[in-house]
Amino acid sequence: MNTAPFVEFDALLSGDQVGQLLHIVHTRAPYPTYGEGRRQDGFGAGIPQRYDAARNFVTTRAGQDEVWKLASRTNYFRETYAYERPLFPEIAFFQQLPQFVAAAQQVTGRRIVRPAIVYLNILVPGQELAIHTDVPEFRGANRTREPEWLLVAMHHSGLFDRWRRHIATGVSWYHDCEGGDFVYYPDGVDQAPRNLRVRRNTAIVLDTDSVFHGIAPVALRDTSLPPIEPGVRLHRDDDGRWSVRRDGEVRATYNWNDLRLSISWKAWCFKDEEELHVNDEHKDDLTLDQILEAFVGDLRRRGKVSSRPDDDTLARLILDEYIRFPVSA
Ligand SMILES: [Fe+2]
After folding, report:
1. How far is the CA of 295 from the centre of ligand 1 (A)?
2. Per the domain annotation, does 266 fall within a domain?
3. What is the pLDDT of residues 140-185, one digit of tens each?
């Protein structure tokens, strides 16, 4: 596999813009945890949205931590600031950042870039983000309806390339951080990863739907970590410190410099007006039946099934067959 393209920024924003963004981060707190996502009905009901990544994480960490701690390690804090439109006006400058738009063109080779999503991740010491690829989108299939692990398997299978919405992702940092390196595999799953140290006002743009990536542990793994389950909030306190709380209970407090903040940006990238038109007018959208039928057809060709299995068996087969993690993850 060739090295996947990426663009790094040594100084992404002006000093004023960094201040503007950090002001937003401070004033929009408290933040919920990532584990509070959508529940799935129908196909995939009962399977966690990112079962693919969680299973790999648990398998590679088996025996190192108690279960609550393992779950707390990777249940970091997440908030969305823009989804197609800015959710508040002050974030618009970041959503439309010209340097990200240009990098997205370069990384995807597609000239029409439509900035879409801005979100924040904050990790506290002891947390990490398991190796994964992001949730991709297809015309007619995205995370508002389909299971997230199914979308990931769809992309890894290569069976749905015609319908893929190409997404460029920018990840930016605002700390000089001990640990918490961005670990990524642009050279493919069989090659060693690269590490990017987290430094204030730096960024990388790449196709995170295709390139496996994650976050190395923030500070030492033996740092005491409070239980962080869905329902926990990260608050900014009056004295400028940050606290992990559940209702009235304060579980831990941190200095800002002990936390690891990243702000991510995603844009849909289109080859030409024709592709944009097909997307916007829903001229060629997938249906769930069509997706499952294609998987069954391929599994049949691979000799894994002879007819359509029940939903649970099919889900397990798809998870086992199509998502291959890096060997060193
Ligand atoms: Fe990611």
Report:
1. 25
2. yes
3. 999 888 999 999 999 999 999 999 999 999 999 998 877 789 999 9
| Position 246 in a domain | yes
Is 85:115 a contact under the CB 8 Å cutoff? Answer: no
Give distance in angstroms: CA of 214 to centre of ligand 1. Answer: 6
Domain count, the chain: 1
For residue 280, report the distance from its CA to the centre of ligand 1, in Å.
Answer: 26
What is the 235 CA–ligand 1 centroid distance (Å)? 23
pLDDT-based confidence at 251, cuts 50/70/90?
very high
Residue 265 · residue 101 · CB < 8 Å: no
Average pLDDT over residues 19-37: 92
Distance 102 CA to ligand 1 centre (A): 21
- Rounded to the nearest angstrom, the distance between the alpha carbon of 213 and the centre of ligand 1 is 6
139 alpha carbon to ligand 1 midpoint, in Å? 21
Whether 40 and 196 have beta carbons less than 8 Å apart is answered as no
Residue 75 lies in a domain: yes
CATH number reported for the structural domain that contains residue 172 in this entry:
2.60.120.620
Cα of 132 vs centre of ligand 1, distance in Å, is 6
Helix (H) or strand (E) holding 85: strand 85-86
- Structure tokens, 114: 């439509």
Number of neighbours of residue 158 by Cβ within 10 angstroms: 10
If we measure between CA atoms, which residue out of 193, 236, 234 comes closest to residue 211?
193
Complete DSSP assignment for 221-257: TTS------TT-EEEEPTTS-EEEEETTEEEEEE-GG
If you measure from the C-alpha of residue 79 to the centroid of ligand 1, how many angstroms do you get, rounded to a whole number? 14
Structure tokens at 163: 């319908």
24 Cα: distance to centroid of ligand 1 (angstroms): 22
Q: Which domain holds residue 259?
A: 6-322
- Evaluate whether 261 touches 177 at the Cβ level (below 8 Å): no
CA 207 to centroid of ligand 1, rounded, Å = 10
Answer yes or no: is 22 within a domain: yes
